[in-house]
Amino acid sequence: MALPFLNGSKKRKRTQIVSVDLGARTTKAVFLEQRGEVWSLCRYALLDAPIFEKKISSELLAEHLKTVVEALETDAKYITLSVGLDDAVVRQVDLPNIPMDEMRMVLKNNTKGYLQQDLPGHVFDCHIFPPKPVTPGNLAEISKTSGVGKSKVLVTGAKQQLVSDYQAAIKSAGLVADYMVPGLVGPINAFEMALPEVFANEVVALVDIGFKHTVICVLDHGELALTRVVNIGGDNVTRGLAEAMSISYAEAEGIKVGMAPEVQSSLEMQVTPLGRELRASLDFFEHQQDRPVTQVYVSGGSARSEMILEILHAELIVECKTWNPSRFLQLSLPGQQAVEIEQIGPQLAVAVGAALVAL
After folding, report:
1. For residues 193 and 29, what is the distance between their CA atoms, to the nearest angstrom?
2. Are residues 10 and 153 in the same domain?
3. Buried b (16+ CB within 10 A) or exposed e, 8-30
4. How far does CA 285 lie from the centroid of its chain?
5. Into how many domains does the chain fold?
6. How far is CA 268 from CA 244, 261, 295, 310, 343, in A?
7. Are both 140 and 173 inside the same structural domain?
8. Which candidate in 72, 154, 208, 239 could, as Cys together with 127 as Cys, close a disulfide (CB 3.0–4.6 Å)?
9. pLDDT tens-digit profile of 137-166?
């Protein structure tokens, strides 16, 4: 699922891909290369995000992208960027069965009607979900949820000015803008490739804990059934832990992903509100669809903490586990990165998932 305003060169065969997840605190990037019939993860990079308050300038972003590519040690030119939750709109809507270009125009002319908000100066793209195969068991459900002559569509959009600024920065960095992908769909794309059997045959929730927000997506036998953004992220947990224990932010960040049992009660106080919000989302889905979510897969920096996973498990009453989005790739990483990929992997879910758009 890609936003169309950065896919002008998509028909050309890619053998190298640089994908960058511009996080609020940490930029995550991966370099993939095709080797024979397989794709290899050749290098990844985690760098501090540029310091800015509201909006990063094109000049600062260009310098940052140069640093990212240098860290990846590649001369690849084509780059895919993910768009953060604050910059991209993502909604599921029903749209008439019309050509894709007309869908985009319909959305542009009636954002209030379809997306429940006015979005002037935005550009849009659509991903049409394939219809469910009709069986005697789901005929009633399909009849209720599908309008005549309509399709279920995932709509994404971003401000035209943001796109222009990103394009200018990428060009200034000596790179070529290839795709722009809403960060929300990154983990879904990666999960489908990393755990295809689970994706296709189970009802699971993907929870991506970011710096400012947490995204929960419920996948029902390969279908995206629910998405929700919770305004609690890793930063809330770290700041709360620092205040509760009267320690520095850096110390709290280290303790958060550690295993020290003496901090468990303080950590529970910070993580439990997030668990309750996520449980409310699962309850909504389960009451609507009358079937349970069987597993929760957690990504993001906070997924490195076994204690956070245990706290979420206790609150959600569903098994919570981390996962590695790179497991379907051949690993061709240099020494230390090859050792650390299992621990770092959960932080790369958005970057890997965005890269898949270019494959």
Report:
1. 18
2. yes
3. eeeeeebebbbbbbbbbebbbbb
4. 20
5. 2
6. 11, 11, 21, 10, 22
7. yes
8. 154
9. 555 555 554 555 788 898 989 999 998 999
